[in-house]
Amino acid sequence: MPEHLVIIGSGPAGWTAAIYAARANLNPLVFEGAITEENRQDGTLPLGQLALTTEVENFPGFPAGDMSGYLKDALHDDHSYLAEMHKKEGVSGPELMHLMRQQAMNFGARVVTDDIAKVDLSKRPFKVTPSEGDAVEAHCLIIATGARANYLGLTSEQKYKNMGVSACAVCDGALPRFRNKPLVVVGGGDSAVEEADYLSKFASKVYLIHRREELRASKIMADRALNNKKIDIQWNSEVEEVLGSDEKGVTGARLKSTTDGSTREVEAAGMFLAIGHTPNTRFLEGQLEMTSKKYLKWTVPFRTNTSVEGVFAAGDVADDYYRQAVTAAGTGCMAALDAERWLASEGI
User: Fold this and answer.
1) In what residue span(s) does the FAD/NAD(P)-binding domain sit (predicted)?
2) Annotated active-site positions, please?
3) pLDDT (tens digit, 9 = 90+) per residue, 73-98?
């Protein structure tokens, strides 16, 4: 028998969709992704991008405080170790994701720890094929596979992720480790300028590192960077290495000139990447309508419908603008409600 609903993805969007779908007695089956070295390198392990962050200060309902007792009581024994690791500053990314996962399972969501290798959306029921195991048929799908941040690919960059290297200024910029200290932002488009401008509210100085001698950002955004006294644009430059130590994390960056190859170092407590994101939609190419950047298109205003009837999209896989945990969770709720109503309209 085909599944009523299959959810692919396990970030805030996927788990929120699973919570709502399970409470609606849709008995959802969630493919949360596989635990592999390839996924680790790509930043696509189960629990999504939020599991790669430390403190989460901007998710409603989780102020700073000692949650260790609650974590120990709420989470299954397999994950109760999080209570011992809790740092009391507020909920951490892994803690929040495990709580969402547990909540979905409490309501009856079933979870498979595997990637989806391919799907066949040409006819219903849809066919979903995992990397391991047998294919699954489903009347309805929610795609919540998210998007991964683009990084430079430096070994030192990988070493200091969550120790000063970040791809989300809004998520991490206000943390104490960055306040009143110099920071580095890499990029030259609108997103990079937005990140630099945001960080200038907290940092003593923001070095904006750009490979060329002119920003790619729109004129209004470029002017914003040029007129911000706290933003120091390093033209014709690229980051050659992230500097730091195991004790302090990021302490600076070594920059290389793109014109003459010379190098110099700048002091910084953190480095923020703003060179774009890549949506995790490769397994869907040719099956669903996408934007030029390969994000899934919502085809009905204020709904999560995709170009194929019965397939819905939630979270960063369809959102290249907000990219926040709370907005992803919101669209996860929307997708579950859209799926529930669509299934009812089909008499399934």
Assistant:
1) 4-332
2) 168, 171-172
3) 999 877 877 888 787 777 888 899 99
